[in-house]
Design goal:
Helix 8 (167-176) links the parallel strand 6 and strand 7 (179-183). Helix 1 runs antiparallel to helix 4. The protein has 8 helices and 8 strands. The chain is an alpha/beta fold.
Length: 206
């Protein structure tokens, strides 16, 4: 597999197992709208913007702002205690960092929770750039987050790869004109990514 200068990662279901905490947050927000929560759809919902999740609800009784506020509130309450890094995530980050690679995170989550969990794991210093929802005007699949990451890491597109699990991640990379690697955690990569792996350690295989 190609060797890159900069490796940028998504968070949810890529580096971090947030399925449990996301389920709790989606349940709270959807039930606040007086709509039916379907646990089987959580992986799908994690791959799409919150606006899409809200738009696909059947007759929500409250506005999107209330939905968003409730989701963020519950997610923040449960994120640190209920999320954990996948084993292969920590191994590949340690390996890439030891090789002197530039590491970055591009996520639609807010900076506070991302920085807190990186500090908790003791790996905040690994990352040269952390692009979160509060640093950009347009979220993935818009290319803005990845383009900002390219700027912050001073990396040309040919030396940059973005790794994620969702269609949103893939589309953002395509729109930004950078390489993309899909990580399949829950057989959720139902899109035409050229490169797919089942372990993040595979990105360092020849």
């Amino acid at each position: 597999m190609k060797d890159y200068k900069t490796y940028a990662f998504d968070m949810d279901l890529t580096l971090l197992d947030t399925l449990e905490t996301s389920t709790i947050a989606y349940r709270a927000a959807i039930e606040l709208m007086n709509c039916v929560f379907e646990p089987s759809k959580v992986v799908y919902m994690l791959s799409t913007p919150l606006t899409t999740t809200y738009d696909e609800l059947e007759n929500p009784t409250k506005p999107y702002k209330d939905f968003l506020d409730e989701f963020v509130r519950v997610a923040r309450e449960t994120f640190l205690s209920g999320s954990h890094f996948y084993k292969d995530s920590l191994e590949v980050l340690k390996l890439l960092y030891s090789e002197g690679k530039t590491l970055a995170i591009v996520t639609n989550r807010d900076s506070r929770v991302v920085i807190d969990i990186l500090k908790q794991e003791g790996i905040l210093h690994y990352f040269s750039s952390i692009i979160t929802c509060d640093k950009v005007k347009n979220l993935k699949p818009n290319p803005e987050p990845i383009l900002k990451c390219l700027e912050e890491t001073n990396t040309c597109k040919e030396d940059f790869v973005y790794i994620g699990d969702a269609k949103n991640d893939w589309m953002s990379a395509c729109n930004a004109g950078v390489d993309f690697i899909a990580i399949e955690r829950y057989n959720n990569c139902q899109f035409d990514a050229k490169t797919k792996v089942h372990s993040l350690l595979d990105i360092k295989k020849d």
